[in-house]
What we know:
By secondary structure, the protein is of the alpha/beta class.
Amino acid sequence: MKQNxxxxxxxxxxxxxxxxxxxxxxxxxxxxxxxxxxRSIATEIYYPADKAGNNxxxxxxxxxxxxxxxxxxxxxxxxxxxxxIWEAAVPEGYIIVFPKxxxxxxxxxxxxxxxxxxxxxxLNNLSQDKASLFYNRIDSMNCVMGHSMGGGAAFLAAxxxxxxxxxxxxxxxxxxxxxIQASAGLKIPSLILAGGNDCVAPPKSNQLPMFDSxxxxxxTYISINGxxxxxxxxxxxxxxxxxxxxxxxxxxxxxxxxxxxxxxLIPWLNYQLKKNCVSGAQFDSIIxxxxxxxxxxxxxxxxxxxxxxxLKPSSFDVFPNPTSGQITIQSSKKLFNATIKLYNITxxxxxxxxxxSGDNFTVDLSEFAKGVYVLExxxxxxxxxxxxxxx
Length: 391
């Protein structure tokens, strides 16, 4: 049973045709840090919504609160180069915040780190403001992130922070003061993604010393074979120009590199910030057999036998199962404000229904690929997961 689940996870990882639960909303705000002489921090925010657009409402299809990702940009790279990151994370239920400060040719790494931490506090304050778009929608979970210079600054942000809970960085570069030295003081769970052919911030002198210095009891280093520094993001002229002047050059495409990034980033976030054990098991099983990377890690995110426990018989009747289309969920008692999610064994959410009340619900699988899915039913009464087979 365990081997079958692991093999299934590997197979289903290649299936990217699924319905995302959220659209992407966007807003621009200016945050003021009164503790630093009223420092003005222009900020771009992308967030889960029911319809895409600027300044649209945060998703009303669920009353869930969303974790915050604070992302630092690279040297002279603007926030919009990271569309690949927000398009992967926001539909999965994350708010991602991009401070636009320190964009010149003489940036302060210290200030960037402080900005990355401050926006987390500022968003939590907005969650308490009834006039805010984000009123009562911010979760306590957060992760500081960044690419290149911004990745190094993320280490500086987390070094003395009491609020930052997780760290995930992309080709982080050494900073002044040293991100490598800052990493030695960090114990938070961390994910470092590197490019095997990064000639801008080579892993040997940047990412590997950061990883080795981390004192986290759960840390992972992933080097993407043939991947480069600039391909962590969308195409950026200045980054690409600099990368073109050094060797080795990337041997995979930008889109191929993005596929590998999402293969690990989303399950890692879903486990760490949402405690989704299915995603943790996906991460652990895929990483050990993926020929597109090399890795170092000192922990298991989720033991695979926990996934099997999730698939135990449920007190709900789910029929027909297997199915070629619609399934019915029958409860022995009426549920209130229940949420139903359907995702595959890799942790990718295919559909979600929230704020449900009653004892009889339906979910349509007719447009989904054949395979095994996990049906999750949660509410005040508790949480259960049931295996569903689509024929």
